[in-house]
Specification:
two-stranded antiparallel sheet, mainly alpha, about 170 residues, two-stranded antiparallel ribbon
Length: about 170
């Protein structure tokens, strides 16, 4: 499929480059423009001037990611329902997709349940809200674990491909 004369992969690559560029520019501006701006309520703390901009950008990216995920899931379900496709090029695509969803959900649940609820010190004050502490731990642990799994999968795939072509 073509969008404005671009292949699908070309569109995805351009969007990725755009998001990375915006992220780098915003984080650079965050650290370079008014980073040591004092917090009005307590001048002992700093409140970078671009904090609202950065939080807004992250919120937009998060909502876009959720939207694209839902759209991809719905279109995938529609495609597989119509044709009953369980494999793509002899790869069990449906089984892999279901496995990824189930494993991700299990990891999220386990990391929340097993996550730490020990109070932490933020700007000199104790933060003790158990549900938010567990949620933060859940996202950190899950993100790290999924990055390790993805890196391992890419490495194994590269090794297998390397030995198949020899």
């Amino acid at each position: 499929m073509n969008f404005f004369g671009w292949r699908k992969a070309g569109v995805a690559q351009r969007v990725l480059i755009l998001i990375i560029t915006l992220t780098v520019v915003l984080f650079a501006a965050f650290y370079l423009i008014g980073y040591s701006h004092p917090f009005e309520e307590n001048p002992d703390f700093i409140e970078p001037k671009l904090t609202p901009v950065l939080l807004g950008f992250m919120g937009v990216i998060f909502l876009l990611a959720i939207g694209v995920t839902v759209w991809a899931m719905v279109s995938s379900i529609r495609k597989h329902r119509k044709g009953g496709i369980a494999t793509t090029n002899k790869v069990p695509a449906a089984a892999i997709a279901i496995s990824v969803v189930v494993v991700t959900a299990v990891v999220l649940i386990l990391s929340f349940v097993l996550g730490s609820s020990e109070a932490i010190s933020v700007n000199g004050e104790q933060f003790e809200t158990t549900s938010w502490l567990k949620a933060a731990d859940m996202f950190v642990v899950t993100s790290l674990l999924l990055m390790v799994v993805a890196t391992t999968a890419v490495a194994i795939s590269a090794i297998i491909t390397h030995f198949k072509h020899k």
